[in-house]
Design brief:
heterodimer, A: 120 residues, B: seven-stranded mixed sheet, 11 strands
């Protein structure tokens, strides 16, 4: 069974930093691209970042470019999101999301999410 | 950026009835469109990709159609577990980003 378990969320002040982690199991992690997708409270979905299976290709949404860094450790079956210079508008549930084999831009499995709250 | 819109914002349907949800793109996305279902307090679930291909394990009562700028998700006979929010997502200009629609909430009439 595919499982994606996020951790690392919490309350942080504006301008602060936070590192999210995602532990993957139930599939060959090193064979799949991964994404982070977020959802502000009561709002819709926003794609944040993508990383290919080998980390050779990385993309970011314009809203986080230069502030967030995605990475992965295939030996540890883990995905990360380093978030710096956080703003109130970054407040959201952050989902770890697996890219589908058929089309990497599609998410075929999602974690349950971790809440990040940016507030003073 | 391609902007996605969905209508209606809320759709009230009785169990057993047919539900038709619309998604429109601000420019052509060909057939590069997916649909997701999200229930309260849960992560989204992939339903449809390529505008009309059902994902693994998705019941046949879910069907997708359309191409270009106009898309439809049809639920042929609503079950109690289908009451949720539905999002469309375009991926035509991947890798220059993905965009989601604002969602359609399907609730019980």
């Amino acid at each position: 069974e595919v499982q994606l378990v996020e951790s690392g969320g919490g309350l942080v002040q504006p301008g602060g930093s936070l590192r999210l982690s995602c532990a993957a199991s139930g599939f060959t992690f090193s064979s799949y691209s991964m994404n982070w997708v977020r959802q502000a409270p009561g709002k819709g979905l926003e794609w944040v970042s993508y990383i290919s299976s080998s980390s050779s290709t990385i993309y970011y949404a314009d809203s986080v470019k230069g502030r967030f860094t995605i990475s992965r450790d295939n030996a540890k079956n883990s995905l990360y999101l380093q978030m710096n210079s956080l703003r109130a508008e970054d407040t959201a549930v952050y989902y770890c999301a697996r890219g589908a084999v058929v089309v990497a831009a599609i998410v075929d499995y999602w974690g349950q999410g971790t809440l990040v709250t940016v507030s003073s | 950026e391609i902007v996605m819109t969905q209508s209606p914002a809320t759709l009230s349907v009785s169990p057993g009835e047919r539900a038709t949800l619309s998604c429109r793109a601000s420019q052509s996305v060909s057939s590069n469109l997916a649909w997701y279902q999200q229930k309260p307090g849960q992560a989204p679930r992939l339903l449809i990709y390529g505008a009309s291909t059902r994902a693994t394990g998705i019941p046949a009562r879910f069907s997708g159609s359309g191409s270009g700028t106009e898309f439809t998700l049809t639920i042929s006979s609503l079950q109690s577990e289908d009451f949720a929010v539905y999002y469309c997502q375009q991926y035509n200009n991947w890798p220059r980003g993905i965009t989601f629609g604002p969602g359609t909430k399907v609730d019980i009439k």
